[in-house]
Fold this protein.
Amino acid sequence: MTKETTPEARRAPYGELYDVLVRAFPEHRTVQGLFDIPRLAKDIGVSHETIYRAVRMDKLSVKVANRIITLSEDMEALGEVEADRLLSREALLQFVLK
């Protein structure tokens, strides 16, 4: 017998880190308009579980924070993201120090 899970139980509460990532990477959206965490994970070379865990806990490892910043800088250099959306180390520092 399998345990049934209600939709409410499947929804993970996301905090400030999720909001920061959504603002920094508007092009990482699904067809439904949701933030595409698996795509972000693939783009920075980590598992999607790593990103889901980070946004649930509002905490990043230094390695993941550096990869996110590098992706943001690369996208800005290619003109794929506006300079005002460039993610700084200061923006992620609060999540690394938790």
DSSP finds six helices and no strands in the chain. Residues 62-77 form the longest helix (16 residues).
